[in-house]
Amino acid sequence: IVSCTNDVGQDDLEDSPFDEMVIDNPQVEMNPSGITPLSARISLNTKVKSKVKVEIVGSPSISYTFNTLTDHHEIPIVGLFANSLNQVIVTLTDTKDRTGSKTFEIQTPAIPDYFPDITIDKSPSGPDTHFMTMVGMAIGNAGTWEVYPIAFDTEGNMRWYMDLSSYSEGNYDGRVSPIRILKNGNLCFGGRKSSLIEMDLL
After folding, report:
1. How many CB atoms are located within 10 Å of the residue 151 CB?
2. Which of 71, 106, 141, 172 is paired with 21 by a 20 to 30 Å CA distance?
3. CA-CA distance, 61 to 80, in Å (whole number)?
């Protein structure tokens, strides 16, 4: 379930509103790959080359920026809260420093009930506590391994996971190790038959 509203403040009134900066309506696709249920992709075209900032509002909020100037945007939305109507603020800034924002409401499903509860024994301190921790999780099921890379925030909220349990590559049959994050933001992991697999977060 996806909806959107203008996020208009005084600065937006002085600058160019979001709807005037884009061509046609943005398209929102939940779980575009079918294996990342807490992710989405927003596709839009801008009249002028622009950069994008994304903020997922909550406790804690998570924000990230794409500084590449372009007029076609495929924006990954990663870090949504599970089983929630998420408020996602997308802000455009074009080459003339005009800005416009829109709030998208994105409903997510609950995480599987067999996932573990996450307890944070000691919360991080310092100026930057809005980050996620990624780990590889494997669940035994009738002699097979179901693999779920997961990410959670500093309050123990599950914010992302990838279901590799039935992925059809066949060259690792649901078994991966270890998982690494590359400099380009993609995941890299090894599988069966000496394979090496790279995938993005969507």
Report:
1. 20
2. 106
3. 10
What are the tokens at 140?
């035994």
Helix (H, G, I), strand (E, B) or coil at 10: helix
Give the residues across from 55 on adjacent strands: 63, 89
Task: Give the whole-angstrom CA distance, residue 186 versus residue 190.
Answer: 14
10 Å CB burial of residue 197 (0-12, 13-18, 19+) is middle
Separation of CA 87 from chain center: 13
What's this model's pTM, rounded to 2 decimal places? 0.82
Q: Is the pLDDT of residue 68 over 50?
A: yes
Q: Which of 33, 27, 51, 60 is nearest to 159 (CA)?
A: 60
Going from the C-alpha of 113 to that of each of 40, 83, 134, 144, the distances in angstroms are 22, 12, 19, 19
Q: How far apart are CA 192 and CA 60, in angstroms?
A: 37
3-state secondary structure at position 21: helix
Say whether pLDDT at 133 is over 90.
no
**Which residues are paired to 74 by β-bridges?**
43
pLDDT in tens, 138-185: 777 666 666 788 889 888 899 999 887 665 444 445 556 677 788 888
The pair of structure tokens assigned to 133 is: 């921790």
45 near 72, Cβ under 8 Å? yes
